[in-house]
Amino acid sequence: MSFQIKEPILVIGLGGAGSKLAIKAKEALNSDCLLISNDTKDSSSDNSFIHISTDSVVNPSVQLIRGSAFKISDEIKSKIANYSTVVMMSNLAGKAGSAIAPVVSKMCKESDKGLISFAIMPFKYEKDRIFNSGISLKRIREDSKCTIVLDNDSLLDSNPDLSSKTCYDIANSAIMHIVKSLGNSEISSETNILSTSKDSQDIEDSLRDSLKMLYENAPPNSIKRSMVYVVGGSNIPVGVLNSITNITNGILKESNSQIDMTSTEESKVVMLSSIQGMTKFDSYDPLGMIPQENTLDWHTPDCSIDCKLDLYQLE
Q1: Per-residue pLDDT tens for 22-60?
Q2: Residues 69-105 as b or e (16 or more Cβ within 10 Å = b)
Q3: Which residues in 27-84 belong to E strands, given as ranges?
């Protein structure tokens, strides 16, 4: 089943990276934009902004930011009330993204909004961020009508010569390509893995890198359908396009793949694949295998709150 986008649309950006993507997505979708962050530097004069205050705590934890976000839940709900579709941008490698995303997704589900979530996952060397990103993604997937995940780590594995900044640029470019195609492409109402390659590559090599990135996130038998976007397709020889089509159909089965071409100066492949079953992100939370019905307090994400209790320290 494909995800149906209905107007009016609100794009929400969480944290620094999410806010930058949301501002670009707003222009692509001709929609309204809301930025939410615990850092006032992420605000924009041209867009609505909600500041999540952690009071005097300079370096707040994910749980403290999340608890502070719940305190202003009425303000967030009032901002999304008049929209049919919400597009949420979040970098789950960042504190703000992983903290606020489950809060916003929960509100959207409770308000019966059509939520499409874009989530960027951390590099594996960011060990302190992997656990929180896994927990947040699990909740986002549960609340969203459609979830699109891009894994920075598998992009770096396919291109170990890239710097982290270049990886971010490639990831952001791929996300924006999908955003621009939301109005004319069918996207599965499930978990979707977004994979791509670096620029200035032979188009067949770009396809192979995209497939490698995909298979590092999920086993081949879990892939239900893939949409292959050939960026700059109008400038690519027809023989090369036929070769790409044959490779894709041979690997993904003809009935499970679709080719779409766009006209840009760059030439590369962007793939969006719907997944049914386990992904590598399920292992980020060691307790993630426990069924939801056997989990206590699932409906409220873990967060820190100041209870103002006069308790003495016990030695």
Answers
A1: 999 999 999 999 999 999 999 988 899 999 999 888 889
A2: bbeeeeebeebbeebebbbbbbbbbbbbbbbbbbbbb
A3: 32-37, 48-51
Structural domain contains residue 96: yes
Q: What is the pTM of this model?
A: 0.88
In a domain, 243, yes or no: no
Whether residue 268 contacts residue 197, with contact meaning beta carbons closer than 8 Å, is answered with yes
Query: Is the Cα torsion angle 51, 300, 119, 78 positive or negative in sign?
Result: negative
User: Which of the residues in the chain have pLDDT under 70?
Assistant: 1, 200-201, 232-238, 240-241, 244, 247, 249-265, 288-289, 291-292, 295-299, 305-315
Considering its fold, how many domains does the chain have in total? 1
Residue 239 has which token pair? Answer: 């023989």
CATH number of the domain encompassing residue 36:
3.40.50.1440
Q: Is position 198 within any domain? A: no
Range of the structural domain that residue 12 is part of: 7-144
Domain-located, residue 130: yes
**pLDDT tens digits, residue range 262-315?**
656 677 888 898 888 888 898 888 776 676 677 666 667 777 766 565 655 554
Q: Tokens for 13? A: 């950006």
